[in-house]
Amino acid sequence: MNSFDGTAVIYARFSSHNQREESIKAQERACREYAQRKGLQVIEVYADRAKSGTSAEREEFQRMIKDSGEKKFRYLIIHKLDRFSRDKYDSVIYKRKLRANGVIIISVVEQLDDSPESIMLESVIKGMAQYYSKNIAREVMKGLRESAYDCKHLEGIPPLGYDFDPETQKYVINEAEANIVRLIFEKYLDGWGYKRLLDYLNNMGYKSKRGRCFRKNSLSSILTNEKYIDRYIFNKRQEKTIDGKRNPTLRPKEEWIVIEGGIPAIIEQSTFDAVQEKLSKNKRKSGTFKAKETYLECVIWADILRRVWRGNARKQTP
Model-level pTM? Predict the structure, then answer.
């Protein structure tokens, strides 16, 4: 490691649209000034843009950890401890990895060492950072819930068939797209399967909301979307697990915000219900077919094994 004693890397991060690209530059500038004062040579800058510090699943962060295992640098310089991680468990795990790889971690602002007092202070700082992060998330959710009660479009791209008014943030029907949605429901009820529907839509040049060709998933999301029957739903899914990994799951129903008549309808209730019934029947048929297929495969393999066993038994008979 001696040849790398003066080598350093910088890790910088900003977490959301509330922070700016300039914050990365400011962190890098402060870290470079520190390195210059201490006579360290900066050989790499790892920067995660719009990445939450509550999860370690950050591309540049993980690349930095990997490079540390290859002994590419001696010092890691960060502007503040919360740029490294706001989760105290991730912080402990990854700092241990870095130290096991011979890396010395330096925070420009906190300037902590390995003394008992510094260890105590770092614990307090990490706890405050995690509190700050969770408190912000709680306040943001409070604001989103209030907007949801007003049936406003909150984030992402509206479903096919809708736009939103920039002033009121309310959903409005995009008639050209709404006709495609009506066509999809109509053809599906007429007995068209997914493959036939997809071929038709794509051959006709129709596009999804993102301007792409239609796929099976986009058809499924359209045919099951309750917004089309004027039902506004918020907080139905939890997109991430407690450790920040993406894994969409349904929340308990008591946490949903459901407002009937909150969005202009594109599809009649009776049409939507008929489609859901048909989807459910097709799903049951598919499951039954797979079960029979698996059973037949087991029977065939059992018969093959029985024949092989009998053949071997005959060979062994004197």
Answer: 0.53
- CA neighbours within 13 Å on the CB side: how many for 242? 1
Residues contacting residue 56 through CB under 8 Å, at least 6 positions apart: 62, 85, 87, 90, 93, 94, 244
58 by Cβ neighbours in 10 Å (0-12 / 13-18 / 19+) ranks as buried
Nearest to 88 by CA among 128, 51, 118: 128
Alpha-carbon span 270 to 278, nearest angstrom: 12
Contact by Cβ (8 Å): 191, 210: no
DSSP 8-state assignment for residue 150: T
User: Contact 76/11 with Cβ under 8 angstroms?
Assistant: yes
- From 85, 78, 76, select the one nearest 104 (Cα to Cα): 76
Q: Report whether pLDDT(147) > 70.
A: yes
Average pLDDT, the chain: 82
